[in-house]
């Protein structure tokens, strides 16, 4: 079993290592890109760009209205348009700083913003005196056209960058999602493989444990299992005060069966007798094979009469059963058993509180059964 366990665990360890490396790489990539995209509200950025594309047109309309009616109201409207353009630049700068865009990607836009700032600084004082100096209106219209061209360039470039960055972000998240799905599937495969390996190891462990306490030929408990379970049954008997009985069973003249018909036939007799023994005893009784043709029945909560009755019933069941030899042997074999029975006693010192205390008396009773002609039950 250790060899099999190592054979199963080695590939599992390798698979865990590969998945762990992939998981670390994916987490690092996700964290790195998530840090770059932290706060990058491309939807809001795109909305700001769309609104900014109208600023040049609105400024031109305001200046044309001022040229048609040079009064303080239209002057104020034009000044508000200048303020909106300047304010929107601050908003765009914040979006750029929070985006995943490299500064080299939008450096030409920053350069154009410097040109825009210069034009705004030139336009504002002219606009301030335009209602009172009609000759300045022509210059104001020219500068409004220059402002519109600058704004058109800035927001056209920003639109290209923002939509490109949003598409890249979407592709990145899709790739990361696919990686996470693949890793999740791999983790499920590893968990399934680990569960299968653990099941296999547990099954092998149960098989080894069963073999260590089971007689390989008959499937009954072996001597080790008998002694382990007997301790529990005697402890229960001591606590409850109920008697416990022991029967030792020996197949009569079994060596002659082996000599006359061969060991394979002898094995078949043992298997058939073990099956018969399990059918006759009660569910609570503990049955074991403790030697070649020697068997044992430990009967909890059973007095001497009950043990003797069960033993006699078993003896008669063996006589009535048809034991067959090997293939080609039609004649049934006459099989009998001898049984020695004893029951725990509390009127002696020390009291019968262990398997070791009952076994010698049952063995002596079995000896008497053989001495007295076999095929009989003796109580000791």
From TrEMBL:
**What positions does the domain GGDEF occupy?**
242-380
Which EC numbers does the record give? 2.7.7.65
Do you know which InterPro entries this protein is assigned to? Diguanylate_Cyclase, GGDEF_dom, Nucleotide_cyclase, Rev_trsase/Diguanyl_cyclase
Cofactor(s) needed by this chain: Mg(2+)
Keywords tagged on the record: Membrane, Transmembrane, Transmembrane helix
Membrane-spanning intervals of the chain: 179-199
Q: Which CDD domains match?
A: GGDEF
**What superkingdom heads the lineage?**
Bacteria
Matching entries from Gene3D superfamilies are given as:
3.30.70.270
For this protein, the record's SUPFAM superfamilies field holds: Nucleotide cyclase
Q: Which reaction does it catalyse?
A: 2 GTP = 3',3'-c-di-GMP + 2 diphosphate
**GO terms of molecular function:** diguanylate cyclase activity
Q: Which SMART domains match?
A: GGDEF (SM00267)
Pfam families, A to Z: GGDEF
Q: Mind telling me what this protein is named?
A: diguanylate cyclase
Native source species: Franzmannia pantelleriensis
């Amino acid at each position: 079993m250790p060899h099999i366990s190592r054979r199963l665990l080695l590939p599992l360890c390798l698979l865990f290592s590969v998945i762990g490396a992939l998981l670390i790489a994916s987490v690092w990539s996700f964290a790195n890109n998530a840090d770059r995209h932290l706060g990058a509200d491309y939807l809001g950025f795109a909305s700001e760009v769309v609104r900014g594309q109208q600023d040049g047109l609105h400024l031109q309309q305001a200046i044309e209205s001022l040229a048609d009616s040079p009064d303080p109201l239209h002057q104020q409207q034009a000044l508000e348009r200048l303020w909106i353009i300047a304010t929107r630049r601050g908003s765009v700068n914040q979006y750029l700083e929070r985006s995943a865009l490299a500064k080299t990607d939008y450096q030409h836009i920053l350069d154009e913003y410097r040109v825009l700032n210069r034009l705004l600084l030139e336009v504002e004082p002219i606009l301030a005196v335009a209602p009172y100096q009609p000759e300045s209106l022509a210059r104001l219209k020219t500068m409004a056209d220059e402002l519109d061209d600058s704004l058109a360039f800035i927001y056209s470039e920003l639109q290209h960058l923002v939509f490109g960055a949003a598409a890249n972000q979407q592709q990145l998240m899709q790739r990361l999602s696919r990686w996470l799905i693949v890793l999740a599937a791999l983790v499920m495969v590893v968990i399934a493989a680990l569960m299968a390996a653990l099941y296999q190891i547990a099954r092998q462990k149960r098989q080894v444990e069963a073999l260590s306490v089971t007689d390989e030929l008959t499937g009954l408990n072996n001597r080790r299992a008998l002694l382990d379970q007997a301790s529990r049954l005697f402890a229960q008997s001591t606590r409850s005060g109920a008697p416990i009985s022991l029967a030792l069973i020996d197949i009569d003249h079994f060596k002659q069966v082996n000599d006359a018909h061969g060991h394979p036939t002898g094995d078949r007799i043992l298997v058939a007798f073990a099956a018969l023994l399990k059918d006759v005893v009660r569910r609570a009784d503990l049955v074991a094979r403790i030697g070649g043709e020697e068997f044992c029945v430990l009967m909890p909560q059973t007095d001497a009469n009950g043990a003797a009755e069960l033993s006699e019933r078993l003896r008669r069941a063996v006589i009535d059963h048809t034991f067959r030899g090997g293939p080609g042997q039609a004649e049934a074999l006459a099989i009998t058993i001898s049984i020695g029975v004893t029951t725990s006693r509390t009127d002696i010192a020390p009291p019968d509180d262990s398997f070791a205390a009952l076994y010698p008396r049952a063995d002596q009773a079995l000896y008497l059964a053989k001495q007295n002609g076999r095929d009989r039950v003796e109580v000791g």
